[in-house]
């Protein structure tokens, strides 16, 4: 049954929900250990940790500007399409903190969310942006995905989660894909964005999604698959596409036969 999605928290994937108890338990134990250590070494805290915290906050603006110096910062006059799409994403999820968005030259990643102290930055690689800047739905998908990382990975919950297993990080990627789907409001374009992230612009239309799903399922099988579930930071493209279809179906955004939706457990 479809539910009203108001915030990024409403996009949490079932895979992430399944793992939250164990992740929370581990982190509670870690924080208890930290609390005991802090109480037992208050002098050390004041001598080393507090100055480090102050320096980190004082230098945060420097770190942000060092990224800005590498490219161009999005504004109403600079990449207005991106600026407008980001505003739509923030308004859709009721977010009040607007990250700085910086476009830099292409590299090994497509986009990432970074936080320096209280300052939030989204980095978009130029090669990726070139292919989607005239596609509002895919642009909103990408921005919402990264904004969701800020809301969850760099928000209050992220501060609590000192430890996140690889399986949990993969599940979080599915959650951020869900947010991207909601912002795009178009399952077809959301799947197309995943294909772009997989092989780039020119080859994305040549990809067969059913083959991607089969490949994802084979990647997760056997001993090698068991190891990969404990190593990969992102699920395979086929698993992400299947997750988008499943979430869109639950939200009533498209009609997908249940037999066509493959589930990719991230491991026990």
Order of helices and strands: HHEHEEEHHHHHHHHH
- Calculate Rg over CA atoms: 20 Å
Number of discrete domains? 1
SS-based class: alpha+beta
Strand order of the largest sheet: 1-2-4-3
Approximate helicity band: 55-70%
Number of strands: 4
Q: Distance between the terminal alpha carbons, to the nearest Å? A: 27 Å
Ranges where pLDDT stays below 50 over 5 or more residues in a row are: 255-268
Give your account of this protein's structure.
The protein is an alpha+beta fold. It has one domain. 61% of the residues lie in helices and 7% in strands. It is built from twelve helices and four strands. The protein has helices spanning 14-40, 42-68, 80-92, 126-132, 136-152, 156-160, 166-184, 187-199, 201-204, 209-219, 222-228, 237-250, and strands at residues 72-73, 100-104, 111-116, 119-125. It has a four-stranded mixed β-sheet. Helix 5 (136-152) packs across helix 8. 33% of the residues are buried.
Name some characteristics of this structure:
268 residues, alpha+beta, four-stranded mixed beta sheet, 61% helix, globular
Topology:
Elements: H1 14-40, H2 42-68, E1 72-73, H3 80-92, E2 100-104, E3 111-116, E4 119-125, H4 126-132, H5 136-152, H6 156-160, H7 166-184, H8 187-199, H9 201-204, H10 209-219, H11 222-228, H12 237-250
Parallel strand pairs: 2-4
Antiparallel strand pairs: 1-2, 3-4
Helix pairs in contact: 1-7, 3-5, 5-7, 5-8, 7-12, 8-12, 10-12
Short characterization:
It is built from twelve helices and four strands; from the N terminus they run H-H-E-H-E-E-E-H-H-H-H-H-H-H-H-H. It has a four-stranded mixed β-sheet with strand order 1-2-4-3. With 268 residues, the chain is α+β, with helices and mostly antiparallel strands.
